[in-house]
Specification:
about 575 residues, alpha/beta, Glucose Oxidase, domain 1, 3 domains, six-stranded mixed sheet, four-stranded parallel sheet, 20 helices, globular, binds FE2/S2 (inorganic) cluster
Length: about 575
């Protein structure tokens, strides 16, 4: 940690709008004063943007306006001036074709909101899956002092005495209905029991994983990730974060001081320890790209390889975020990583202290929720990166969610050309498939769907489910919900819509998966592969205008984070020219 706080007081960027006696200063101040602000609030104190991803159509973030009031209280207490700003809210459960398509649009719009307005620092008020990475990407590109406050997870779901996890049980119940083990009426009854309170998914899905990533990166205060949305301590966290951002602005503690390679390596190991979402891979690659850190897919495999998964939460384990919080939450995991020599202890956090200083004395209150390394769910919990002639730029798999007997497997490909093809044929009992086959889904990558939808964990054919089989090897260029499970190979790059080898897999080809050897091989000759690729025709791009066109024209591969190429890098927040 080599950070040295800046001198205070000094002139902040917001004073270029509100300071002085010029006509323009009077213009800017005068308009804001229509909200009833006294004159002395424009005396050079930090103006903090609360970038709020609240939306009625992002129910996971539906309580963030209430939480923003606590953030504001903290900012006022510390001598700052809070301004709440509505930020693009990419809802996982609402946006079509997929919220992922809008992560980059959200990041772009929020970056411009932060850099084009009189904001000295930001509280990133986030929760649902894409809201966390999009705001972190924006903050990284502006490099304005920023702190993450997540909305927190929902309380445990309960259905007929069983703990019910967001998403995870949706997939389970849906398969049970197809297998004839659950009635449609029971499925409908379970619906409300999955979402008992405000908040994000209560499993270690993508929202909880990204909240954990923010904390492990050092971009949120210690303990932020697991506090339930409705717990009073979530409000306390919001208020103290509001206080803290004011001091961060005074100290000029910026994302680039925190988001170092060490911080990203800490986050990768943390994701392995918590059994976190595969979605974290694309998001962390994209955030790193915004600060010029050369994080690669290989780093995911090499850093996470020997990290045990010790958090016993769905989808890999049995508990939910509420129990994780009661057990001590992420600080316990970080302490364990530190004791195992798997944490860069000197990494700086938004508190101004090192990550190790934040966690070194915390205690585990439930060793069935946060397991000892000896009792870990798996000793090698990291994201596995497979390469081979089917994925020259890599594909990912989450071993802790996979079936051990399928980690080395050779099977006959059953190919679905796109998601519509899959949906139209999967329930047909005439489909030529058995449990030894490998299901292959094309055209669902960043350009393909478009937006890289979460369809990689495609459901098994009913005729196989009815045999009691619950897992098969599945390969695609799509993503998978962080709440999902199975032997699912994702993010295959280059994607099929960009002419990757996945595009030319044919029904009946043999595919070999060897997780130990990190290989994914299409069993045809190099010559045959070259011939097939030479005949490949790109799918007709239907988007001729609008954001969909912009996205498809500029989105990069999953192996580098699926960002829009022209948004990569840190542009800072230069003072825009006066317009009057
Ligand atoms: Fe929003 Fe899971 S769908 S957090």
């Amino acid at each position: 940690m080599s950070f040295k706080p800046a001198k205070w007081p000094r002139k902040l960027r917001s004073q270029h709008w509100y300071g002085g006696t010029s006509r323009d200063a009077i213009y800017h101040r005068g308009w804001l004063k229509n909200q009833g602000y006294p004159n002395d609030l424009f005396d050079g104190r930090p103006i903090i943007g609360i970038m709020n991803t609240w939306s009625d159509l992002t129910p996971c973030n539906g309580h963030l306006r209430e939480l923003a009031e606590k953030v504001k209280a903290g900012i006022w207490e510390a001598g700052g001036f809070p301004v709440e700003v509505p930020a693009f809210s990419a809802s996982e459960n609402t946006f079509r074709p997929t919220a992922m398509m809008f992560r980059n649009l959200a990041a772009m719009s929020i970056e411009e909101q932060m850099s084009g307005q009189p904001i000295d620092g930001a509280v990133l008020l986030v929760g649902c899956d894409k809201t966390t990475p999009s705001l972190l990407m924006a903050a990284a590109s502006t490099d304005l002092p920023s702190i993450v406050v997540t909305g927190g997870p929902m309380l445990n779901g309960q259905f007929r005495g069983e703990r019910v996890g967001s998403g995870t049980h949706l997939w389970k119940f849906s398969e049970a209905v197809k297998a004839g083990e659950m009635t449609q009426e029971e499925f409908l009854e379970a619906e409300q029991s999955m979402s008992r309170s405000t908040g994000t998914c209560n499993t270690m899905g993508t929202a909880s994983s990204m909240a954990s990533m923010a904390e492990a990166l050092g971009m949120a205060l210690s303990g932020n990730a697991a506090i339930p949305a409705v717990d009073s301590r979530r409000r306390v966290m919001a208020q103290v974060s509001g206080r803290r951002i004011v001091q961060m602005v005074k100290d000029d503690l910026k994302p680039s001081d925190i988001l170092t390679m060490d911080a990203f390596e800490n986050a990768i190991r943390t994701n392995a320890a918590i059994g976190g979402s595969t979605n974290a891979v694309v998001h962390m690659l994209a955030i790193a790209g915004r600060v010029g850190i050369n994080l690669t897919l290989d780093d995911w495999d090499s850093c996470g390889r020997d990290v045990a998964t010790i958090v016993n939460l769905m989808p890999s384990g049995k508990y939910l975020m509420e129990e994780f919080f009661y057990a001590g939450g992420l600080p316990v995991v970080l302490r364990n990583l530190g004791e195992a020599g798997q944490l860069h202890k000197d990494a700086l956090t938004v508190s101004g202290k090192t990550i190790w200083d934040e966690v070194k004395v915390v205690e585990n209150h439930n060793d069935d929720v946060i397991l000892s390394t000896e009792n870990a769910l798996t000793q090698q919990g990291g994201i596995v990166v497979l390469t081979g002639n089917l994925a020259p730029k890599g594909a990912v798999l989450k071993p802790s969610a996979a079936s051990p007997h399928l980690l080395q497997h050779r099977g006959r490909a059953v190919v679905f050309e796109d998601i519509d093809d899959y949906k139209s044929r999967i329930e047909d009992d005439e489909l030529d498939i058995d449990e030894t086959c490998i299901m292959v889904l094309k055209n669902c990558g960043p350009k393909g769907y478009p937006g890289m939808s979460e369809v990689g964990n495609m459901g098994l054919p009913p005729k196989i489910l009815k045999k009691g089989i619950t897992d098969m090897v599945r390969i695609s260029d799509a993503r998978m919900s962080g709440t999902a499970y199975g032997t699912v190979i994702l993010h295959t790059a280059p994607e099929s819509a960009a002419g990757g080898p996945l595009a030319v897999v044919q029904n009946g080809d043999m595919i070999a998966v060897d997780v130990k050897a990190r290989s994914l091989h299409l069993d045809i000759s190099d010559e045959e592969l070259a011939v097939r690729l030479s005949k490949w025709m790109p799918p007709k791009d239907t988007a001729k205008s609008g954001y969909a066109w912009l996205h498809n024209a500029h989105v990069e591969g999953a192996d580098t984070g699926a960002d829009l190429g022209f948004l990569k890098g840190c542009r800072g927040a230069p003072i825009p020219k006066e317009s009057h």
